[in-house]
Design a protein that fits this description.
By secondary structure, the chain is of the alpha+beta class. The strands form 7 sheets. Strands 7-8-9-15-12-10 form a 6-stranded mixed β-sheet. A 3-stranded antiparallel β-sheet has the order 11-19-16. The chain has a two-stranded antiparallel ribbon with strand order 1-2. Strand 8 and strand 9 form a beta hairpin.
Length: 667
Amino acid sequence: MSQITFLEEVTLMLLNEDTGYFEPLSHWRMSCVAAGAVLMDLALANRIDTDLKSLVLLDSTPLGDDLLDPALSEIAASKDTGRSVQFWVEKIALGAEELMQNSLDRLSNRGILEVDEAGFWVLSRKKKSKEAGSEDTFHDVKRHIYNIIHSDEIPDPREISIISLLNSCEIFSSLLENEEYEQVQERIELLARMDLIGQSLAVAVQATFKSPVTAKVAPRRNPPRIKLWDFLTSRAVWSGNLTLFFAEQHEKLGPIARLDAPGRNAYVLSGAELNAMVHRRGRLFLRCKEYLEDFQKDWGVSRSVASMDGAEHYRMRKVMRDGTARVVVEDRVEELFQVFGKHATEWAKGDVLAGEYVCQTMVGEQISRLSTSSDITGYFDDLYELETRALLVNIYKILPKFMTRTPRMNKKRQRLLELYATIHSTHSPALREGKRRDFVDDILDLHADDPQYLPETDIGFSFIAALIAGHYCGAALSFGVYSLLTEPEIVEQLREEAARVFKDGYPTHDMLRDVNIDVALRFVMEVMRMYCVIPVHNRHVMNAEIIEGYEVPAGTDCLLAYTASHYLDENFKDPLKFDIDRYLPPRNEHKKPGAYRPFGVGTHTCLGQRFVELQLSLDVLLFVHHLELEMVPKNYKLKIDPFPKLRPNKRFKFRVKKVLNPLPEMV
């Protein structure tokens, strides 16, 4: 533990393994605790001295530590000597969000923690670092403090200091059960008073978050408005490109605006900086439940991973993680190829094909095999039409409510129950023996372990969560096929790469490393930047938040236009140009925080993004390796249908002009 700072130790103590985030403290209180930890480190390093009234600089020599040196430099530069400890706690707390992020990043670099795609911090699953074993270090920090407060052992000054700091923010009452806390409360209070430095900092921290004199009150003013006229006169809207529309509004109005349209009032957040902020802190003021309630009722579901928030959402993601991981595609790549071969054989007859539909059906079958080990071919149209109708009625409010309960929709709903039963029947223990686990296996195990958390009423919808996500993946591939037809120079690069990847038949895990499919990955990244099929996320504001000086009140709606950053020149040079080299060094345009977010932002970021990237990359390589396509008609210009997701309109069609290489064997 001597190798980590107070701030890192506090970070580990406050991190909750069940939620993937910190114990519930207010943002300001957390900031004050972080500031106190930094000052404790400086005191332990003999750079400052404190008492109950003042803080004194002893030595301004930098420590070579990026967590501590900025605060030391600020103290050394101050012309007012002898300022109170509380003054410096408040001062440092203003930058505490960056401090906490740097602390998490350092723990990640040490191999102790890792962050997933949705911003949840978890115990590292990587090989233990030389500096400290990840699991041992994480649990030793907590275990060591617990041992001290439960024993008569005399701790050293460092241990007393951190106990004092943790006690000041009342964290022990959260970490321990009520009865356990009552048993050790007296000892905690005793230890907290044993060290003068720890005591003075703890008192200052507690006083600061009780009375944050630096807290700012947001002016009560309205942000600029996006009006109905802006929609009606926008070329981007008429072309169906909502991403481009919100980018234009961002450039005109800034990162926060108020949507003022008939039947819809919401705050619109956009831009890379707000994307990064929402990804870090959105869980504290945004939730999903409200806008999905009616949608889920139409499916007979009480809740799903999409409508869950907080700890229950994190728990569901952990269960779904293995079944949506990239390794699923790697392990079952032969099945993915065979499904492509089955569909491409039908295409090769020379018929004119509806581009978006054929991509949907092929991708849908691939995902159904990889995630449910079932063939949903006979159910695809029913599922697709039912989902589309439910979205148009309940999410976009374009159609009246009775349209989900027509005789036609009721028949499709009955077919959906048959699909649930079909998937369930193929996953008995005997039928699954000796087979690779899939997504459905994990869902059924969760239901068996905790039928209250995941009841029978919600199992079926959980089965098809990946299949519904596959509809978006199919739309993305259709944009990819359009891009293949309009970017012939890139197609040649892709063909060269495909020849290397497929030279020995089905590629091995090693051949599927990113470096070997680099062109395909960058092609898919650019497709998803320019044609992100879900341009905005709906959220409900559960706690008021101050954003860019404007108050976003609790109880209002929020549209996260997270893809608007894709069309801003400040992030991507010539954003309307299809350019796969923008992802190469030294440009690396996608690495600017918050700039590239095709899979969403915040805790509900797509769980299967690595799965999708590999699947789409392989499909693109299969297209160029086996088929030569032509647009029908040749002069077709892309038009986008924006609802219920962005997709090429029905006029996008293609024909197989030539089979270049033998197709994979049919299933």
